[in-house]
Specification:
The chain has a seven-stranded parallel sheet, sandwiched between helices. The protein has 15 helices and seven strands. The chain is an alpha/beta fold.
Length: about 325
């Protein structure tokens, strides 16, 4: 595809053409150089879409909740994009597409664009190209972009870094509070949702969450001399029955408006952009360093010599062999 045709593709996405958006997302997921070039051209056109992250342990009902919220916002005439990060197949590396199957009724609505992505081993349960796919949905003109993770446990905080607001979905009777504390979700959450609140243990879970949030707020504020942080609300609902979903949608809209007014959303977006840049730089430096095999050959030679080896020392030796440009220096045998 020529440069001109690639530019036309971005224009087609801006015009709301869904096939063009799907192709651009595919380029983004593959790391296609054409996407990299186009992204530089439309970066200043992004930012209108609010991004909401949904995370929590498996079985909490995240997909059901996202589906219910989509219906609620569609009733208001708002357009939506959903990025559902599914587990990767251990054999093909592709997404299992479970969320797309569960949201089949929404897939027929052109006002809801659903994109399933594979984690491909990405840390934090979020595929590495999730931000780029969300950018394409923003370019497509979606009002809201919903990011849903696989719920891998310890590293859900990645969602908070990619979203304007993060919703942590829990359900009674599964040790969710302890897991949330281990995963750092107390710090990541902007809203807590107790789904399936008609099950035994819902009252206890709500009390434990409230106590944990209160314990976190006091010591952190005193120790760092910070202003008292915003206390995340705890909302109870049943996504499968639709009970409480409209109240959650209203609360999320209120928090988004508040974030836009006080500048906290802009601050989060700048921080996320910085993390994206660092991640890309790290990945590209590593790719360049390993591209011609010289670094791997140096490592193989060091391992073949045997003896007591320190992983840190070997890593330092390999780093010292790299010039500032990020490509390996010529092997001694090559000179």
């Amino acid at each position: 595809m020529t440069v001109a045709l690639a530019s036309d593709l971005a224009a087609q996405v801006r015009a709301g053409q869904l096939p063009a958006a799907a192709r651009l997302m595919t380029w983004a997921e593959r790391g296609d150089p054409r996407y990299v070039e186009l992204a530089a051209g439309f970066a200043d056109q992004l930012g209108a879409a609010a991004r909401l992250g949904f995370t929590g342990p498996p079985g909490a009902g995240k997909s059901t909740l996202v589906q219910a919220l989509c219906r609620c916002w569609r009733e208001q005439g708002r357009s939506l994009g959903v990025v559902a990060v599914d587990p990767s197949s251990p054999f093909t590396g592709g997404a299992l597409l479970g969320d797309r199957v569960r949201m089949a009724d929404l897939a027929l609505d052109e006002g809801v664009f659903i994109r399933s992505m594979a984690t491909r081993g990405a840390f934090g349960g979020l595929a590495s190209a999730t931000d780029d796919v969300a950018d394409v949905l923003d370019l497509l003109g979606r009002d809201l972009v919903l990011l849903e993770t696989v719920g891998v446990g310890q590293s859900e905080v990645d969602v908070a870094r990619s979203a304007d607001l993060t919703v942590v979905v829990l359900h009674p009777g599964a040790g969710d509070t302890i897991q949330a504390m281990k995963a750092g979700l107390l710090e990541a959450a902007d809203v807590y949702v107790i789904n399936k609140d008609d099950l035994p243990g819902a009252d206890r879970l709500e009390r434990e969450l409230a106590d944990a949030l209160e314990l976190r707020r006091g010591p952190l504020t005193e120790a760092h001399g910070q202003a008292e942080p915003r206390q995340p609300p705890i909302l109870r609902l049943s996504a499968s029955e639709g009970r409480g979903v409209h109240a959650l949608a209203e609360r999320l809209d209120q928090l988004l408006a508040q974030g836009a007014a006080d500048g906290s959303t802009a601050t989060r977006r700048r921080a996320n952009l910085g993390r994206r840049v660092r991640r890309l730089v790290e990945g590209r430096l590593l790719e360049r360093a390993l591209s011609d095999g010289k670094l791997q050959r140096r490592l193989d030679q060091a391992l073949a010599r045997g003896g007591t080896l320190s992983a840190h020392a070997l890593a330092e030796q390999l780093l010292c062999a790299l010039p500032h440009g990020g490509s390996p220096r010529p092997d001694e045998d090559d000179t």
